[in-house]
Specification:
Layout (H helix, E strand, L loop, with lengths): L1 H22 L2 E3 L14 H8 L3 E2 L3 E4 L8 E3 L2 H6 L6 E5 L4 E4 L4 E6 L11 E7 L57 H22 L1
Parallel strand pairs: 1-3, 2-8
Antiparallel strand pairs: 3-6, 4-5, 4-7, 7-8
Amino acid sequence: MERLMSMLVVGVVAVVMVQCAAAQTVHVVGDNIGWTIPQNGAEGYTTWASNKTFMLGDILIFNFLTNAHDVVQVPKASFDTCSSDNAIGNPITTGPANITLTSAGDHYYICTFGTHCQAGQKLSITVSSTPGAAAPPTHTTPTTPATPSPTSSTTPEACPPEAPTPKADGPTATSRPEVVPSPPDSSSSAVFAGFSLTVLGFAMALFL
């Protein structure tokens, strides 16, 4: 029983880990250009981030050459002035750098090498704690079609059937007289009685 419970617990933990891993999204900053000085300035990373949705638990990958660039998170004031003052944590100097998004809100990252930040090597993103809710569908109130008023139609009243007019000289219905059976003939009864007495006499003679 204990072994079964242990296997069950391990299975539940594995499922939770798989779900958590599946929920994470890995974002390669800049995609193919990586983390470098973009050709079109800061607009390059602004455009890249505008097409992405960043959630808690997602991972940012900054692809850069070690000793050529670095990355550090800074507050907005330092981001605007490209200053590493008041940095949030220490700069990551070894590339590629993986940063897990552990808090919601606005996040700002810069490169502290030389004037790389002033040249556009800076990134700002907004991290959401829950997926953005889709706009609810607009419900249109269906219009009830006007019901045409029923046209009044007068139903002709059924004419009562006319009573047949009796003919003056017609024959009147007569009931058939009930046939009363005639009483049995008295002579037949006498013959039958005599025959019965004869048979009875023979029968008594046989048993005596």
